[in-house]
């Protein structure tokens, strides 16, 4: 056979193989192929997640896991009264953990009695909350009811800055950024947002500019305040507000330092950093000091595990300034699809994360938000991914283990097959990747989250009133053999 004929024969074989592959793809089963179209640009997966997956132990058989979870689902959770308040018992299946949000609810109650008080929420999440999606709607609901103006804490740079409507941020391209997503030993400790920034270009200007957003409650930049860290060298920053320039010095003496740009409300400003290359910069806070404020600390690709690397002393310094009452952990999107339905490794890792939060923000209430529904193609049909429910149950387990509140976002949006409905209905509420919500869906999710939290608050007020009027809650019961007894420390009001 000559070379020319051999080439054509080889080409024909390859062509036939390609045609056969296309044909067989349509009938191959399960989740070998997915119709989800995911834009990989700027998508990161945190290093701790990859390490945890690599070390994942598959020692438990799937049938033993299922039997253990079946027994757990019907177990009764009986709460001990805290400050005379005891929420009704729950089963694991319907667990919400309002009992563990009592300190947060008391702060809301005090704010409702005195509108000059202040309540603050830190909302940590992944790409689900990118661009302030979901969080801006939770914030809006709280500020509608309890007052408060301002978008909260905003990082120097962000992947979603261009798409965020609640505040507009532009910045020079010469910022050096370190993220807890992929840096284990930063040059300076990470800030409360999981990042640290350096204006390390001495040749070209390093700047950031903010403009107020369009949604109500965020139409001004209230009391803009810079947060920065410790350094052996001082620096300067020039704030340009309209036609005025305010020249101020940076004195990085403490773990966390603040510098107020100006008092009151402005529409926009620009900050030029000068000879500040060694000073860790964290971001700016915007709030009017009263009502509710919600900070969005979203990070694409995050599993939640990197929070365990926080420096507790630095976080306490942030907390001394910002004074958090509730911390929300909303993760799951990046934990699915790693070839296992045994998420014990994630339970263990996130338990460590929650414990670090408790160390970093003493007395704060914690809320775990589970994975939403996600669909994958099985036998030519989009269905709920088989890993969704096991992950949701794992998240519920570490919420209970760490005495945190819990929102089952999977069931809240409709349970099995709900993501397909959210994508296919008109108008759609989710994207064609069958994973992420669009703005309409994010608004619906934000409202659902707020509704569950508010339901717990309304129950709390009823229990509180019974306590104040002398109608005592039922006596603490001795748990049955199949019950989970939960002891509580007293809550300071």
TrEMBL record:
Spans through the membrane: 6-24
Location of region: Disordered: 468-493
The keyword Magnesium is assigned to this record: no
Keywords: Hydrolase, Membrane, Transmembrane, Transmembrane helix
Sequence ranges of Basic and acidic residues compositional bias: 479-493
Molecular function per GO: hydrolase activity
Keyword Transmembrane found: yes
Gene3D superfamilies associated with the record: 2.60.120.1360, SGNH hydrolase
Source species, domain of life: Bacteria
Protein name, entry field: SGNH/GDSL hydrolase family protein
Source organism (scientific name): Flavobacterium soyae
Lineage: Bacteria, Pseudomonadati, Bacteroidota, Flavobacteriia, Flavobacteriales
